[in-house]
Amino acid sequence: MSFCQNWDDLYRANQHMSVWPWSDVVATAFRHTALRQASQDFKILEVGCGAGANFPFFLSYCDNVYGIDGSEFIIDNLKARFPKVADTLFVGDFTQPWPFNEQFDLIIDRGASVHNPPSSIKRYLKQALEQLKPGGILLITDWFSTKHSDYDKAPISIDKYTKAGYTSGAFADVGNVNFFDKELIEDLVVGFDVLSFNHSSNEDVQTGHCHSSWNMVLRKPDNEA
To answer: Which of 39, 134, 143, 220 has CB atoms 3.0–4.6 Å from 214's, for a disulfide?
Structure first.
């Protein structure tokens, strides 16, 4: 699956332009990695980095920050904002072979891979496992749950997990949205050590809308080649 053009259009329309680091990313990176005392060879990659909300946080501790996103517009924007890492920001589909060959201490997936079907996510996770250093961490947040209110409201069901066609709400015009249950996740993360595996639901008592999602901390085993 190639990058969905919908996201480039949304960025050009100044939508989904988050600028503040996500609290789950900050807390989990500190808890599960050596970022706070990062060595000179500590490397971070954010897949589907979007508008770079986490970059100021990363760069305050680490010089080796990589990002990949399918939107040429947003990558050009990031290169202008963060010239220090312009050479390590790439336009590309992160579910396909990556245009760099580095080993990372930390890979961040903050609600990025959810816009791909399970087959593409499995391919991306295999590459992430290969390009993490032994003991390296993959931090995944906001994998939408099948208990999310919008799961059953999808105008189009591509398969059991992948939905599309939203014209209103948080998923309006974003293209495909994948929803996950425990069984799917356990199948996808084979090969990783699972350090943390959380499901959360937040219900709006006025509307009854429930936002449900999964957060995970995955570790590459030390004995991986």
So the answer is: 143
